[in-house]
Amino acid sequence: MKDEIEPSEIKTLLELVANDGLTIDRALQARNISRERFDRWCEGNDDPDRGRARIFELAEISHEINLIRDWHQRAQAGDWRAARDFLAHRHPEQWGKYRKVETETPPQDMVFTVNLGQELWGDGDVPTRS
Fold this sequence. Notes:
Blueprint: H1 7-18, H2 24-30, H3 35-42, H4 52-77, H5 81-90, H6 92-95, H7 107-120
């Protein structure tokens, strides 16, 4: 299997990432290029600032910037929800709702707390903790 990827394939991959918002992995799937082959191709120039992988990182960033601009324009016009929702889905770590759930309460005690709450607010017959 050849490791080189044709320039026309690279152009198409970049368009899928920068213009259409696909992740690199989804763009590779769409063009039937394995991740392993892509990684080997990237190793041909792995300079962190100008390497082949960096080009695709910049394409993702470019798409995000365009969505942010669109978001601002839509917000000014009164309809920004579509871009917001796409950003939250596509980049959840930067744009998604932050949800952190931690508990140190053992599950048995949690059941008791829920049951006690149901008893206090009258949500029907609730078994008590034995």
